[in-house]
Structure formats: structure tokens, C-alpha cells
Design goal:
The structure holds two protein chains of two kinds.
Chain A: H1 6-28, H2 33-41, E1 45-47, E2 52-56, E3 62-64, H3 65-78, E4 82-85, E5 91-96, H4 101-109, E6 127-128, H5 143-153, E7 168-171, E8 185-192, E9 195-202, E10 215-221, H6 225-239, H7 250-257, H8 259-273, H9 282-290, H10 310-319, E11 320-322, E12 328-333, E13 344-346, H11 347-360, E14 364-367, E15 373-379, H12 383-392, E16 407-408, H13 423-432, H14 436-442, E17 447-450, E18 464-471, E19 474-481, E20 493-494, H15 501-518, H16 525-532, H17 535-542
Parallel strand pairs in A: 6-7, 7-8, 16-17, 17-18
Antiparallel strand pairs in A: 1-2, 2-5, 3-14, 4-5, 4-13, 8-9, 9-10, 11-12, 12-15, 14-15, 18-19, 19-20
Chain B: E1 2-7, E2 14-17, E3 22-23, H1 36-45, E4 50-60, E5 63-66, H2 69-76, H3 93-97
Antiparallel strand pairs in B: 1-2, 1-4, 2-3, 4-5
The chains are: A alpha+beta, B alpha+beta.
Chain lengths: ~550, ~100
């Protein structure tokens, strides 16, 4: 993992003290809320439905055991004993006190963490593949590139006041596990003739106007990556619609002027930026990359597993993924227990996951955009012991990518922007489909719920998506089918009139019945939907 | 009726205007009629509340009940964590919200 140098540490420490002063001035009345709000947002501090909410950055979703322990400590000491892992691979605390926020940031800084750029119209936390450095199918480890982008984008003076927030994702596999093309800029690292570089996609996103990012450059050599991104941001910064918040994202700009014209302007700017020499020297990239060198794998490990315990076997079948190194595996910890709150973990659970990472996964954890946790490098021989510990803590739900592995935003239970609750609906759907065999029979089915049109719950990218709306003061839910955030990216479509909370659960059950009746061998729900279209589903649900 | 709500500046807690101060309990709210905006400005200026605003509510025997579900959830707490609401021991509290 990357470790701060003195520059990183002093920058974060200085920001803590700056914010401490800003909070003191707010509490004394020297700053009004209008003056203070943009300052607190730059430090990830929102005012939500019940209290202040702090969003802590987890760069590209990677954490050490020590950092994870700190997250548990924050939950226990400053919040109400739990945290919420988000779709941006971050963690949020829902019950923060303003006068304690500087102390929290100071504690986070001791383990090289912060909340900088987790809000505001700037480049947000760089997201990546949760299996980076472990996946069997990657062409390179995307984390050094994500870290380079983190350093480039942190406190970038030109991009601190963009027209709107800006989200970047880096992956390095043809299989997209990070919804790369639903980002403002998505980068897929590829190799061409042995040279590493990136395919660049721009103008994707969800929210009220969902769009899939078109490819704007089929290959940028890795050496030129920062210059190209600098050019891409400059063109957006120059032309983005600051006059209208609903048209300010880069996706609207690219939609309005066309990908071809945007690309032409980026190329023009790129030619200029290249003369500025902002790409780091190779030695600097090598310094960063050295932090992500593979761990000291043990050689000669067996790939055999004793699967005689049926519950363990179920968990291995569903939640354990092949690793690039013989004898090792990637273990997914589901934060979606049946009837639970998607993405929430108690301080004790966070501590346990930290301990398991330290003991069994080279001290590393990952947060996924699907609101789960990953132990990326575990010996297969240790899987049973790990599973037993997880099971005892309520963390061994075997439902990765199944219908109960639901992405859900905090919704109206916590969020001041929400129109409807997301979490109770996720709980009801999980309970309706609780039977593990029933879930597994349905196969991969990505269900995503947002409590408002801002789409934090990624409903546009759900095989089944649900959007909560306010209909004359009553919660109502629109159902969407056919979305995907993966390499088969697509946007879900609304199937018809909305439902009550119970009504939408019934509708989903009817849809799964249609799928079971019509599927062919190997077809997932979304495949069947794409083949047969919406009509059979609508007929069953509304007929 | 119209009632006035906001958040405590330091703690962020949801608070309700009682006529002379701020309470954590919505049932202590009073009808502010047309005076809500003026009270809000004065109280915010004195840093006794953060981002106050006026909402519609119904008078009930148990006290004011906000008209919109969002404000009822603000008043009680998250519906999915009864243990974190203001009435963790009241099994009917959820019905008040919904």
C-alpha cells in the first residue's frame, strides 16, 4: 500500500488545523452558515437529516488493518457505533458533532486518512477495481495509476472549483467490476504491442441524466496519461455549464457538443499541455509503484479445500473468487445480511475485518462500490478459519452478486435529498428472497435502489433498478429493468407506473417468475430481459 | 399549523422551536403562524440554531405531527434503527412516522 511521504502528511495535517480554525470561527459566529458550508463540504462534512454526516475518503477502496481499526474507533468514539460503506468505496458516519469534527480528522490523519475532496465541485475519490493486484485477468495493477491520479488531483488549483463534481475510475481488466463507464472519466488500462496505456472514456454518469461514457481515445500511453487527463479536465472546466447545476456535469457538455468535437478540443489542448511537462518522471512513478509490489507469496501452496461443511461450501461457491497466485483466493465479505442495512457495519465488525486482514490478507482490505468488503489475498488453507470468524460476527452471508446483495443509498432514513426510503425496501426484498437456494437458482441479479433521482444507489445500472419518488407526500417506487454497470454496460428502463413499497416487492417476484419461465441455459435475468424484451414482464406485473 | 425546525449548531441535533427556546422533541413545538421566518432569522443570528425553516404540521392530542414524512423521520430518527430513535422502547413509534 502507498505510504505518505512528508509532503502528503504535512498537507493533510495542515488541512486539519485549517479546518479546526474554520469550525471555531463558525461556532463563534465569525462565519455564517453560507460562508462555512463550502468549507465544511471541502472536508466531507454534510448536514443531513438528523445530524452532520462525515464522508471519509478510502482512496481507490484500499485500506490497511490499522486504517480499518481507526474507522472502528471513530465509529465508537464519535458516532453511534457503526459506519456506512458507500458506492464510492468510502465510509460515512451519520451522527457527527461539528465541534468534534476537527478531532476526528486529526485522528484520521495519524493513519494517513482524511475527508478531503469527498464533496464539492472537485475531483472526488479515485475509484478502482476492488480486486486490483489480485485479479487473475488484470493487465497491470491499477492502484499505482489511481494513486498517481490521487496525488495529481489533490488540491489541484485549477480543478478545485469545477462546474460540478468529477469522478474518475481506473480499471485494468476487460471485466468491469467498478462501473467504469458510468464515471465522468473512465480509464481502462490496456497493453498495445507490449506498451501500457489507457483507453479513455468520458462523459458517463448516473444522476437525473444517466449516460454511458463514449470512448474518446483508444490508447494513451501511460507516460502521457496525466497530460491527457489535464487536457480533458481543462476543456470541461472551460466550457462546463456553471450557470445551470443540472447541466454542469461533463456528460451534458459532451452530449451537447458531441464526443467528436470534445475529443478534437482535448487533442488540441493535449498538444499544448504536453509542452508543460506535467507527467511525472519515471523515477517518481516507480517510487509510487514500489508501494504496490506484490506481497511475498508463499510458494507451493495447495489449491485443495475441504468443503465438507455445507455452509462453508456455499460461502466459498458464492463469495470466494480466483486469485492470480496459486494457493491464494479473494474473499468477499458481504455487508448485506438478510434483513440488514446494506453497507452498514458495526465498530466490532469493522475491528474483526481489520484483524482478519492483518492476520490473513497481508494487512489489506478493499471496499467495493457494491458496499461490500474484500480480503484480497488470503491463503486457501485459511479460508475455513476466516469463514468461521465471519460467521460468528454475522458477516458470512453467501450472497455476492445475488438478488439480496443489494446496493442501496441511505435514502430518506438519513439523507436530506431523498424522496423515499431505500433501506426498508432492501430489507423486504432480502427477506422475500431469503432462501439461499432460491437466490442461487436466480443467479447473478444485481438489484440497486436509489431514494431519489441523484442515483447514489446506482438504480440506472441495476439488472433491476428501483427509484424512490415522492408522490404527493407518499413514497412511491419506480421499477427499472435492464441496466448494467459492468462490461456489458447499459441503462435500465422504467417499466411502467410506480408501486407502493409492498407492491414493488411483489412486482420483483413476478419478474423473477417470468425470468425462470423464459430463461435458456446459462442466461442471467438481464440476458433474458434483453432477449425477450419488456412485454412479458409488464404483462405479468401489470396484467 | 406551522412549526419551526432546524439543527443545533454544534451537535447537529434536530431541534424544534418551543416559543422561547429549542427542544429535541417535536411535541414541544408551537404554532409560529406567520412569525416563523422572523424567529428563524433572529435565532440563527444568535447562533442558537442552524439553517432553521418553517414546515406544515397537524395538531394532534400528542402534539404537532409534521405533515411530510421527511420531517417525521427527522423528528423521530431513522425508521430502520429503532434503537437510535428518540423513542426506542415505543413499538408504535414507527406508525407515527408512516
Amino acid at each position: 500500500m502507498y505510504q505518505y511521504d512528508t509532503y502528503d502528511q504535512s498537507a493533510v495535517d495542515a488541512r486539519v488545523e485549517e479546518f479546526r480554525d474554520q469550525v471555531a470561527r463558525r461556532l463563534s459566529g465569525a462565519l455564517s452558515e453560507d460562508q462555512f458550508k463550502p468549507l465544511r463540504l471541502m472536508n466531507g462534512l454534510y448536514l443531513q437529516l438528523h445530524a452532520y454526516m462525515l464522508r471519509v475518503a478510502v482512496p481507490y477502496g484500499t485500506l490497511s488493518g490499522q486504517q480499518m481499526h481507526m474507522l472502528a474507533h471513530i465509529a465508537r468514539k464519535y458516532d453511534r457505533g457503526y459506519g456506512h460503506f458507500t458506492t464510492r468505496q468510502n465510509i460515512q458516519y451519520n451522527w457527527i458533532k461539528l465541534d468534534e469534527a476537527p478531532d476526528i480528522l486529526a485522528e484520521l490523519a495519524t493513519v494517513e486518512m482524511h475527508a478531503i475532496q469527498t464533496s464539492g465541485n472537485c475531483i472526488r475519490n479515485i475509484s478502482s477495481d476492488q480486486y486490483a493486484g489480485a485479479a487473475a485477468d488484470e493487465v497491470a495493477d491499477p492502484r499505482p495509476w489511481a494513486e498517481l491520479l490521487r496525488q495529481w488531483s489533490s488540491f489541484h488549483p485549477e480543478f478545485s472549483y469545477l462546474p460540478r463534481k468529477f469522478k474518475i475510475c481506473v480499471i485494468a481488466s476487460a471485466e468491469d467490476r467498478a462501473a467504469m463507464r458510468l464515471h465522468d472519466i473512465g480509464i481502462e488500462l490496456v497493453k498495445r504491442d507490449g506498451v501500457l496505456g489507457g483507453r479513455i472514456f468520458a462523459g458517463g454518469g448516473m444522476g437525473r441524466t444517466p449516460m454511458i461514457a463514449p470512448e474518446i481515445k483508444d490508447f494513451v500511453a501511460a507516460d502521457d496519461l496525466l497530460s491527457y487527463l489535464e487536457a480533458a479536465l481543462r476543456v470541461y472546466n472551460r466550457h462546463g455549464r456553471r450557470d445551470n447545476i443540472y447541466k454542469a456535469r461533463i456528460k451534458i457538455l459532451i452530449h451537447e457538443i458531441g464526443a467528436k468535437e470534445y475529443k478534437r478540443q482535448v487533442e488540441e489542448e493535449f498538444a499544448h499541455v504536453k509542452t508543460l511537462g506535467i507527467d511525472p518522471p519515471l523515477a517518481e512513478f516507480d517510487r509510487i509503484a514500489a508501494f504496490f509490489a506484490p506481497p511475498a507469496w508463499e510458494q507451493g501452496l495447495s489449491d485443495d479445500l475441504d468443503l465438507s461443511d455445507p455452509d462453508f461450501r456455499l460461502w466459498v461457491d458464492q463469495n470466494v473468487i480466483a486469485h492470480q497466485t496459486p494457493g491464494y483466493a479473494i474473499a468477499n465479505i458481504s455487508l448485506k445480511p438478510i434483513g440488514g442495512i446494506p453497507g452498514d457495519a458495526s465498530a466490532d465488525q469493522i475491528d474483526l475485518m481489520a484483524d482478519l486482514a492483518t492476520r490473513y490478507s497481508f494487512d489489506e482490505l478493499r471496499v467495493t462500490h457494491a458496499q461490500n468488503i474484500v480480503l484480497p489475498h488470503v491463503k486457501k488453507a485459511d479460508l475455513y478459519t476466516i469463514w468461521q470468524a465471519l460467521d460468528e460476527a454475522g458477516l458470512a452471508t453467501a450472497n455476492l452478486d445475488l438478488i439480496s446483495d443489494i446496493i442501496a443509498c441511505p435514502g430518506l432514513d438519513y439523507c436530506s435529498l431523498a424522496n423515499a426510503r431505500s433501506i426498508p425496501l432492501a430489507q423486504k426484498i432480502g427477506q422475500r428472497f431469503a432462501d439461499p437456494e432460491r437466490q442461487r437458482d436466480l443467479g447473478e441479479l444485481k438489484l440497486k435502489i436509489s431514494g431519489c433521482i441523484n442515483a447514489c444507489g446506482h438504480h440506472h445500472a441495476g439488472h433491476i433498478g428501483i427509484l424512490g419518488v415522492d408522490r404527493k407526500g407518499t413514497e412511491n417506487y419506480q421499477l427499472l429493468f435492464g441496466g448494467s454497470g459492468a462490461e456489458d454496460v447499459s441503462l435500465a428502463k422504467i417499466i411502467g407506473p410506480g408501486f407502493s413499497e409492498d407492491g414493488v416487492v411483489d412486482a420483483i417476484e413476478k419478474a423473477t417468475d417470468v425470468y425462470k419461465a423464459l430463461r435458456t441455459d446459462g442466461e442471467r435475468f438481464v440476458d433474458t430481459y434483453r432477449r425477450v424484451g419488456m412485454d412479458p414482464f409488464k404483462e405479468a406485473i401489470y396484467g | 399549523m406551522k412549526i419551526l425546525t432546524g439543527n443545533d449548531l454544534a451537535s447537529g441535533d434536530v431541534v424544534w422551536w418551543t416559543g422561547e427556546s429549542w427542544s429535541r422533541h417535536v411535541e414541544d413545538s408551537v404554532d409560529v403562524n406567520e412569525h416563523g421566518e422572523a424567529i428563524a432569522r433572529a435565532e440563527e443570528g444568535a447562533r442558537r440554531v442552524n439553517v432553521p425553516y418553517v414546515i406544515e404540521a397537524q395538531a394532534t392530542p400528542e402534539g404537532p405531527r409534521p405533515a411530510h414524512i421527511k420531517d417525521r423521520i427527522r423528528a423521530l430518527g431513522p425508521t430502520i434503527r429503532p434503537d437510535l430513535t428518540l423513542k426506542p422502547a415505543d413499538p408504535d413509534a414507527g406508525n407515527w412516522v408512516i
